[in-house]
Design goal:
Strand content of chain A: under 5%
Number of strands of chain B: 0
Largest sheet of chain A: 2 strands, antiparallel
Strand order of the largest sheet of chain A: 1-2
Order of helices and strands of chain B: HHH
Number of helices of chain B: 3
Largest interface: A-B, 10 and 11 residues
Radius of gyration of chain B: 16 Å
Shape of chain A: elongated
Helix content of chain A: 55-70%
Number of helices of chain A: 8
Radius of gyration of chain A: 22 Å
Oligomer: heterodimer
Distance between the termini of chain A: 36 Å
Shape of chain B: elongated
Structural class of chain B: mainly alpha
């Protein structure tokens, strides 16, 4: 593992840290706790005296998928912001296209967890509702624009 | 007016059909168009027609027999059209929800 790399905890790493205490060894847990997304591997090797064989342990954590050096590959709580952003964009689309009829669609969007799959299901439901009660043409346009927003 | 069983049934029918009229009018803003909205105005017109026809039923005795027969036949026809539209609408809704 290159000394200049800065490591981040992955969602899997967060889960194992906050989950079963016996899922990983104490040494691995201690090492995982030191990963802060700021300190390089070289600095960790110098600082973290309470973890034995730091470099090997870090490699083990990396291999297990508990840490990563590429931030884009790391799913953390910070990814909640883009999810909120998707919901906000979809709500704005609903308001723009449906006006006063958008409220029930927005309510549906707010009730789901925000994953693209869940949002796609909500969009499908909205499309059907629009097709049945508002406009058949508008339903298809809403579906296409909504899918574009969630990246489908 | 004699209050026999048919009069009571007529009154109940009038109350129900006016409740239906209230429903179709109050639901209208929620259904501005689409598969359902397209048929809603026609269904509402039929409900209004039924409401007027039901209101007239207690006075059927005052209407000449020939006119009464035409009137009843016309209501039957409107009823058949109403059922046809409703069944087709349900069919379209089910198709839309399952496609």
């Amino acid at each position: 593992m290159l000394p200049h790399l800065v490591l981040f905890r992955t969602q899997k790493g967060e889960d194992v840290l906050h989950g079963d205490r016996h899922a990983i060894s104490t040494n691995l847990r201690r090492a995982l706790l030191t990963i802060d997304g700021k300190t390089s591997v070289a600095e960790l090797e110098k600082k973290v005296f309470w973890v034995s064989d730091v470099k090997e342990v870090l490699e083990e954590l990396f291999a297990a998928g508990f840490v990563h050096h590429d931030l884009s590959a790391v799913q953390t709580a910070e990814t909640a912001a883009p999810v909120q952003s998707l919901k906000v964009q979809l709500a704005a689309l609903a308001r723009e296209m449906l006006g006063s009829n958008s409220e029930r669609m927005i309510k549906k969007m707010e009730e789901v967890d925000g994953s693209p799959e869940a949002l796609e299901q909500v969009l499908l439901g909205c499309k059907r509702t629009i097709k049945l009660t508002i406009s058949e043409d508008l339903a298809d346009v809403f579906w296409q624009r909504g899918r574009k927003i969630i990246g489908k | 007016m004699i209050f026999d069983i048919s009069t009571i049934l007529n009154i109940v029918a009038i109350l129900i059909i006016f409740y239906c009229l209230y429903l179709v009018v109050s639901l209208r803003p929620s259904i501005p168009g689409g598969v359902v909205g397209k048929h809603w105005n026609f269904l509402s017109t039929l409900v209004l027609l039924f409401s007027l026809a039901y209101l007239a039923t207690p006075f059927f005795g005052l209407i000449p027999i020939e006119i009464r027969r035409v009137f009843v036949s016309f209501i039957f026809l409107a009823g058949a059209v109403y059922v046809l539209i409703t069944v087709r609408l349900i069919f379209n809704i089910i198709r839309e929800l399952t496609e």
